[in-house]
Each structure stands twice: as structure tokens, then as C-alpha cells.
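Give me C-alpha cells for this 188-residue protein.
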Amino acid sequence: MIVEAVVLGAAALGLSAIAARWGWKRRARGSAQAEQAAARSPRPAGLAPGDVLSYDGVDLVLERGSELVDGARIRVLVALSVEPRYAVQLDDAGERVVLASPYDALPMGRVADVVEVGARSLSLVCRGDAAAADVVVDRGLLRGRVRFTMLADRAGRHLVVLEPDEGERLALLGDLVDPRRLDVLPGS
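Here you go.
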């Protein structure tokens, strides 16, 4: 009787070890397949149309957007009818995001190296010329070549001016958000 219990115990232990190993291999295979699917995904890194940004109790659904692909890496996305109306991504990963609204008080012509906005002084960060591309095909905001100017102050206030060859000038004023307080729910 004791021998039978020992044999049954050993068999059960062996079967549980086999099942555990099979489950581990299956999970590893599943995670490898998920990584391959993510690599094939057309979704760009960072923010994209369809994403929902939640910051300080405000949810913004990003509708469409464009990015500057040579020169500076700036991505501009339009939010659906909520202030602030634009999300400006300043890096590839989407960790430096400015929530901005259109700024109409900027005089036409070349943007100065220092611009006074209220009591704040914004200084030139970068200026250049780049090609605009849709973040997602047929959901773009800018077309052709774009002249851009970005100014900022130490507190995180940014002014981004985009002047496309095709279309109207877009000046956006907003603040850099704390990435710890920004939640991004990826869209489709």
C-alpha cells in the first residue's frame, strides 16, 4: 500500500512537471507571437489618431495628425472639439507632449527669436524646414514642405508655428504636460 502511494505520488509529480513545462512553453510562444504582431503593426510609435489622452480630468480623442519627418521630429494631432484642441508630440516615444490651442496674436511674417506671450518670454528652441507626412494614411493635417519654429520658456510653455507650403499657418501655444499625469489609451 505504501509502495502504491509512492508510485502514484511520483507519477502525479511527473505529470504536474510536464504540464507546467508545457504551459510555460505555450505562454512563451504566445508572447513571442504578440511581439511579432506588434512589429508588423502599422501603428506608429508615440501618439496616433484614435488614441485617447486623459490629463487633469479632461479626455481628448485624437482625430488626425501629421508629423515632420526630416529636420525636427514633431507630431501634431487634432483633438475632437475640446480645449486644448491639439497635442504636439516633441519626441519619438510620445513622452514629451504639449497640449495646445491655436494662438492668433502672433504677427505674420518671420517668427522672431524671442516672443512675448503675456508676461512670459519664449525663446527660440529650433527652426527649420521639413516634409510633412500623415501619421496614419489619409488622416493627415499638413501637406508638402513645412517651415517650423519652436519657442519655449523654462516653465514648459511652448509656441509651435507651422507654415506649410500648401495651406494656412498654424500657431499653437500650450504647456508641456507632466508624463506621470498623462494617461494614453491606444486607439485602433
